[in-house]
Amino acid sequence: MREDFLLLNPGPVPLSDDVRTAMSEPMVSHRSSEFEAVYERAQDGLDYVFERSTLDEAETSAGGTSLVLNGTATMGMEAAVANLADEDDEVVAVVNGKFGRRFARIADRHADVTRVEFDWGSPVDVDAVADAVSDDTAVVTMVHNETSTGLLNPVEAVGELAAEHDARYVVDGVTSIGGDEFRIDDWYVDIAITDGQKALAGPPGVSALYVSKRAEAHIEGEDAPFYEDLDWHLRKSESHQTPFTSAVPLFRGLAVAVEDIRHEGMSERIARHRRQSAAFRAAFEAMGLDLFPDLNEHSTYSNTLTAVSLPNEVYGDPDEFMSEISERGVSISGGQAHLGGQIFRVSNMGNLTSEHVLRGVRTIGESFDAVGVDVDTEAALDAARDHLRQ
Ligand code: PLP
């Protein structure tokens, strides 16, 4: 793999040299004071990210605990649902893409699930969610940034419904937290989940949870899955340890990644992600391409990921186009499940520079040209530059 290979996939994202170096330090015991210091640094940095993900860095939580779990975001999603819902409890799962569907499937294994389902890429109709949530609902699950479609979902509006019915609200912020606004208390979020490898720009293999004080009161432990017993994780985290052996190198990488975020500052980081995603959208539109999802007033385009409909010339068979991109040292993603062959997706999560964004635009433009799709790459670069300068 060339050293300058540019990952523009929606995770894993490129790692800084500091994160890479931290992961190769000599091993220590997960019960040592050295490890406790690592976990404490990771928790401090995550507290900052979870509690101050706003454009002015104002505090958005009245108190909660940041946890790191061995295992990617799916582990975090399961931990959240399985600790808050018993088998007879009703979980309302909002689904308008692959990860909303995954949340529903996870919940199926632990509770009685009602799906409020929309086509992938269609906005969430909050009235339909209102019809499904009742005083019998124990948990509502929602994905903030639907990575499979590039749509940002109305977390606050659904959170209000959950709060009205005193249901716990579990939000997958896997591809938003660390790159976009996320307001824990204002949006009534009880447990927020994110992944090391996405907008935090850490390694794959660990997930991070923010467990609010409200959620803690509902977590008892006894019926929880053994490995994902959040009561146990919360108790051990008071001394900056985990119940079982921690993935030490990954915790180290994550600790450095979240410290880097604090150095940049969440307000600047959110503004940068917004500039960069606006630049990608403008560039693809200047190429004459259509952005993928249909929007209404409750939804908006993602600020961390751009999904674009493939033009007719490569629709249904994008392999050659994708190979042209990787031959130029860049990697992007195609559509998932039934969206395969219909869209492509480009991430701007993590620590990308303007040069990275422009390189992505140029590479995609040149690759379209190489497979016979006539696009104006220079116009696309100009459109991107306009946004990157703002
Ligand atoms: N949720 C969202 C929104 C995601 O984008 C992803 C991964 O892309 C996940 C959950 C699951 O992450 P993983 O497959 O790493 O467990």
TrEMBL record:
Keyword Transferase annotated: yes
Transmembrane domains' residue ranges: none
Domain Aminotransferase class V positions: 68-336
GO MF annotations, alphabetized: alanine-glyoxylate transaminase activity; L-serine-pyruvate transaminase activity
Gene Ontology biological-process annotations: glycine biosynthetic process, by transamination of glyoxylate
Signal sequence, start to end: none
Cofactor(s) required for function per UniProt: pyridoxal 5'-phosphate
Keywords: Aminotransferase, Pyridoxal phosphate, Transferase
Any matching Pfam family: Aminotran_5
InterPro entries, per the entry: Aminotrans_V_dom, PyrdxlP-dep_Trfase, PyrdxlP-dep_Trfase_major, PyrdxlP-dep_Trfase_small, SP_NH2Trfase/AEP_transaminase
Family (UniProt): Belongs to the class-V pyridoxal-phosphate-dependent aminotransferase family.
Cross-referenced PANTHER family: ALANINE--GLYOXYLATE AMINOTRANSFERASE 1, AMINOTRANSFERASE CLASS V
Protein name: Alanine--glyoxylate aminotransferase family protein
Organism (species): Salarchaeum japonicum
